[in-house]
Amino acid sequence: MASRPRFSRLRRTLLAALVAASVAVPVSGAARPAAVPAPAPVALAPLRAATPAALAERYAANRQGIRAAERMAGEHGDRRRARALRAMADPARHFLRFDGRDGGRTAEVFGDLSRAGTIAVLVPGSDTGLDTYERFRAGAVALREQLGDRAAVVAWLGYRTPGTVSPEVLTPGLAQHAAPRLRSFMAELAQVKPAARTSLLCHSYGSVVCALAARDLWVADIVLYGSPGTGVDTVGALHTPAAVWAGRGTGDWIAAVPHVRIRVPFLSVGFGTDPVSRTFGAHTFDAGAAGHSGYLQPGSVALRNIARIVSEGHPTEEGRHA
Question: Which residues, 6+ apart, have CB-to-CB distance to 240 below 8 Å?
Answer without folding.
Answer: 214, 215, 217, 219, 222
